[in-house]
Design goal:
disordered N terminus, transmembrane, 5 helices, transmembrane helix, 6-stranded antiparallel beta sheet, 280 residues, alpha+beta, membrane, 4-stranded mixed beta sheet
Length: 280
């Protein structure tokens, strides 16, 4: 105890009864002289507005802007079980090892190299796998941000084990959020679907427009597929809208089909209306 008392710069006896004596002033000066501990600065994550829907082809790049400028840290690479990311020729290259991982794992990797980026991979129909279908940026200053999605090896089938999704981002991509298609599990509905009548679609070679439900359902079932419906409302301009509160109405076999989409593996979604509208 005596040794500790000897280490003290100001003793208790120097402070007794002195609110502003020499001992108190010495203690205050000692405290002020200490270097303050700085808290690490954290960039707040801003709420981002939806930037719209993009149907970009595989390997195509989209340009976003303006965006938050990134302040690079010392790390130029990072890897975890979900993703590898590194700086290559002025671009961040993220190789996605696990397309089914928790999005927090992708965010962890981006954050490790100084990027505030949110990536969500959602189930998509086969033609939409590897496409960016929604994106956005935050902030109101900065340069244009380039984001691309590709595969490695190029043009490989993403369902093959050796095929990897590769996301590329310019160095100033901090503040971006991205939704892109990944392969769907057998029981997952597609977040991004393609027309079922397109080439390689489940109804390839068959036209559904302006046919009655009974006729189209017969063809769908002939191909060993199931049917779900989306009720649409015709618009004066020849288009159609969709009321989410009107989807529980029973669909008649004499209703009319507008289009057919891939809903999930083995399931086709028919867009139908009770009214028959001749479209130009």
């Amino acid at each position: 105890m005596n040794e500790l008392r000897q280490l003290a710069r100001v003793g208790d006896e120097d402070l007794a009864g002195q609110a502003s004596g020499a001992g108190a002033r010495a203690l205050l000066a000692s405290i002020i002289a200490e270097e303050p501990v700085k808290e690490p600065r954290r960039r707040p994550w801003k709420r981002l507005a939806t930037a719209g829907v993009v149907t970009a082809a595989l390997a195509a790049a989209v340009v976003l802007g303006p965006s938050i400028l990134n302040t690079p840290g010392s790390a130029t690479s990072y890897a975890n079980a979900a993703m590898d990311i590194k700086l290559e020729n002025g671009m961040w290259v993220a190789r996605i090892k696990d397309p089914f991982a928790d999005p927090a794992k992708y965010e962890e990797a981006f954050h490790a190299v100084g990027l505030e980026v949110k990536l969500q991979l959602e189930p998509a129909s086969p033609r939409k796998v590897g496409e960016i279908f929604q994106f956005g940026t935050g902030g109101d200053v900065g340069e244009q941000t380039t984001i691309g999605f590709d595969s490695d090896p190029k043009d490989c089938k993403i369902t093959d084990p050796e095929c990897t999704l590769v996301l590329t981002l310019s160095q100033n991509a901090s503040g971006a959020w991205i939704k892109a298609g990944r392969p769907a599990k057998p029981d997952e509905p597609y977040s991004n679907s393609s027309q079922a009548t397109q080439k390689d679609g489940s109804l390839a070679g068959y036209e559904v427009e302006d046919k009655q439900v009974s006729e189209v359902v017969a063809e769908v079932e002939r191909r060993g597929l199931k049917v779900v419906y989306q009720i649409v409302e015709p618009q004066p301009d020849g288009g159609h809208g969709m009321n989410p509160n009107a989807q529980s109405a029973p669909v008649g076999q004499d209703w009319w089909v507008w289009d057919a989409e891939e809903a999930q593996l083995g399931v086709v979604r028919l867009l139908v209306s009770k009214e028959h509208v001749i479209r130009k």
